[in-house]
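User: I'm preparing a small set of examples for a lab meeting where we compare how different chains pack in three dimensions. I only have the primary sequence for this one, and I'd like the structure in token form so I can line it up with the others. Please keep the answer compact; I'll paste it straight into my notes.
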Amino acid sequence: MKVVFTGGGSGGHFYPIIAVAQELRLLLESEGVKDVVFFFMSDDPYDQKLLDENNITFVQNKTGKLRLYFSLQNFLDIFSTFFGIIRAFVRLYKLYPDVVFSKGAYPSFPVTFAARLLRIPVIIHESDSVPGRANKMAASYAKKIAISFPGAADFFPPDKVALTGNPIRKELFSPITDGAREVFGLEEGIPTIFIIGGSQGAQRINDMLISAGPELIDSYQIIHQIGENNINTFKATMDIIIEKHEHKNRYKMLPYLDLERMRMVAGVADMVVSRGGSTIFEIAAWGKPSIIIPISKTNGDHQRKNAYAYARVGACEVMEENNLTAKLFIDEIDRIFADTELMTSMSSSARSFSKDNAALKISREIVSILKEHSSYGKEKTK
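Assistant: Understood. Below is the structure token output for the 382-residue chain.
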């Protein structure tokens, strides 16, 4: 039996695929289905090590990207997308999987469209409150559509939609506290703020922290995932700024956090500052108060809508990127930490928002479709 996963562009698309793949494999094994083969078809493997660890074979399929702004590249990418569909058709025909699961983004469109031509069932998942173009296009021929935010249902055929939440790797539901402070060199009794700009970092937040950082470490300690593309420039600048600060060791700068260190951060952080992407669901799973700073220009303004949907349940405060200054940021952090009742309420609301069985729900939908195919029964107890 074969399953093809597709999606791309960011960790927000990739990591939920890993979560579903892990849960699906366990579910199939529990039902006695053997010889299951998983593939990930995209323009880039994103994290080849993680694919290897989960026994998922990468199948490259280059394609074009339609940008939201005017560019001559958009014209050329029409042809790139066309040839991407042809390549996806050939590769899917050779593999002929039983189902395709898509997380959206431009690398997924040729794969899901080719699956449609080959009559291979497609399931899609939408992480945002406003769906991306790839998922909007795939919705017409997808058999099932899983969503994370209730508002996303307005964009899809109601008979296909299921509110599942966002798939999160199981390990992230189990923060690590033992030894975590020692790993990061944190002080006891000092509130800890975790700042993450998504898998690629966030330049706008980084720039603001150059000004805010020295004052913040008077009262707090910071673990800042800066992004691999920005770490050298940011660290060099911040090191100079806080060189003579008596608490300079309270600012921890990291390019990237692997799974184990992310679990450690979840164990020690008192507050999280993040963009408005799928990291929201990890913050909710941890039950952490948060400040969400959505990107001001995204497809369908989805980050702002994600952030305010999360804020409406009382789990976070939202700061608009256009109003983001060091003083306002520091004032907001001080205000939240000073209000113990608010911190407790935000934490409780975050946990209520979290859905810890999203990957399992999606896996069950995949299995229900697999059961319609004769190969499902043939693969049992081979």
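A couple of notes for your slides: The chain has 15 helices and 13 strands. The first strand starts at residue 2 and ends at 6.

User: Perfect, thanks.
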